Amino acid sequence: MKKMMVAGVAMLLMLVGCRKESDSVVSYAFLDNMAFAAADTSFAAKFDVLWKGLNVNYALWDFEKENGLDWDAVYEQYYPQFAALDKQKGKVADKEVMALLEEVVAPLHDGHLVVVITNHTTGSKISASPSHLRLAKDKARQAEYELLEYFIPSLKYYQAKGDVLEYKEVSSNPIQSIIESATAYIKDKVKTLTDKDLVAAYNKAKETLDECGVLIEEDNIDEALQLYNMTVIRYEFLHIPGLVTIESKLADESIVMKYALFKGNIAYLSLKAYHLSPYLDKKFRDEDFPDPSEYTAALIQQVNDTWKAWFDAIQAHHKAGDLGGVVIDMRSNEGGYLSDFRYTVGALVPSGGYHYANARFKRGPGRYDYSPEMPQPMPTLETEHVTVTEPVVLLCNCATISMGEHTTWGVKDLPNGKVIGTRTWGGLCALDSNASYSDNYAGFVGIKDQTPVFAYVPQEVVMTKDGKILEGTGIIPDIELALEHEKWNGGNGPDNQLDRALAFIRNKEQ
Questions:
Q1: List of long-range contacts for 407-412, beta carbons under 8 Å, 24+ apart
Q2: Alpha-carbon span 219 to 224, nearest angstrom
Q3: E runs forming strands in 149-301
Q4: Which residue, among 432, 399, 398, 403, has the nearest Cα to 345 in the 3D structure?
């Protein structure tokens, strides 16, 4: 028995020895004390967790090596520098920690990657994103991004000139619009009141709603929603029109969608984010909104009506033989559900999945433990629909990210597709939750807001059918054209990128 135990240990050592690049015997995707405990009080331990966690879970190491990164050399160079922070007396400045962290992550190419470590001496969360660091070096691209990160296409100009035959829009970002209408009502209401207590109550409600607005501007949506719902309950006795409680999922599944039918029967659709499935798919909807409020039920119907208007226009005009073409506006689309692909490009092509890219997965703890490359078909609409043979034009920009980029890629691959705009963000690798770790050695390093080190890491690498990885680079349009932002003037003027798309369809311009 003793000999068998010795043999077993020897075999284990041989197996470990065959994988020198990964000496990990802990999981970096979960709250494993063996991995994270030392990092609570040590910068050197934090770097060790980050380096080893990425070493095991990151899926782009061959690509990084091709681009000149030696990950082992990174450890040798930076471990002593993080260890030196531990020797400092008192608090370590956040900017000093940030400078080191940025140097470590800057060479990486994953467009989604964000690394967060806690400075235990100050309590601050220090974050770094390689894609934002690259952006900061490209001044022209950074200027474009700052203009367009929150860009939402507007068709006011085209409606005013009579170029739009049909129009629908819907926004499921309800808090901001409700706050605006509620505060406007309060301002008018208090002018008519003489009761000082009522005036004070209305003004206090407005003050709290203003706080919600500030939180939204700071992108603290969850906190804003919590404060907003408390305000609704607290001031219910004031009967402020439109002030209703909002399900938290509406903040998570925000969507801004616009449909228009332009002259020449050109069906236009724009999306700010890919959160269609929770509204259009019954399975998703039952999970996210099992008992929707009256407000949410009406919103779900609006989303369905807006998307269906676009889809029905395409079906009817294609069958009638007078469909001019389709425009899908992905400018500043921030991404979302992969399943949503079926409602845009997937609604224009035959059912059965659409293959424009390949993928591989991280399938072991070794740095280069990848699955074989395999086709990565995207979901298509499986209900009956026509195959669009007319021109399909997609608009994109530098703030087109993730699923927005996959839609761009899908249209670029179509024989009747054309992409117009500027180069996309470069974040095409797919992500999932920590639960996917049972299938793939990828996902996250740590748990957000719980572990002293956290990293958002892709679970698969998506590449072109001939094996080219576009991560960190993005998709280059067929027709490169920047938005003339000043002329656009918040939608009050012409949109030169949209004009180019309409001209391409109407005049068959190349």
A1: 407/328, 407/330, 407/333, 407/341, 407/344, 407/345, 408/330, 408/475, 409/356, 409/357, 409/475, 410/341, 410/345, 410/346, 410/354, 410/356, 410/378, 411/328, 411/345, 412/356, 412/475, 412/478
A2: 9
A3: 164-171, 256-262, 266-271
A4: 403
- Distance, CA of 118 to CA of 121 (rounded, Å): 9
| Series of mean pLDDT values for 10-residue runs along the chain (510 residues) | 38 37 63 86 97 91 96 98 97 97 97 95 96 94 93 96 97 78 93 94 95 83 87 94 83 88 98 95 92 87 97 98 98 95 98 95 87 93 97 98 97 98 94 54 79 87 94 96 96 97 86
Strands 164-171 and 444-445: unpaired
- CATH topology for 146-172+253-349+387-428+470-507? 2-enoyl-CoA Hydratase; Chain A, domain 1 (3.90.226)
Helical ranges in 18-138 per DSSP H: 33-36, 43-57, 61-66, 71-86, 94-105, 130-137
pTM for the whole thing? 0.86
Tell the residue number behind the tokens 């195959």, with chain if given: 387
**Integer Cα distance of 458 and 428 in angstroms:** 9
Amino acid at 425: W
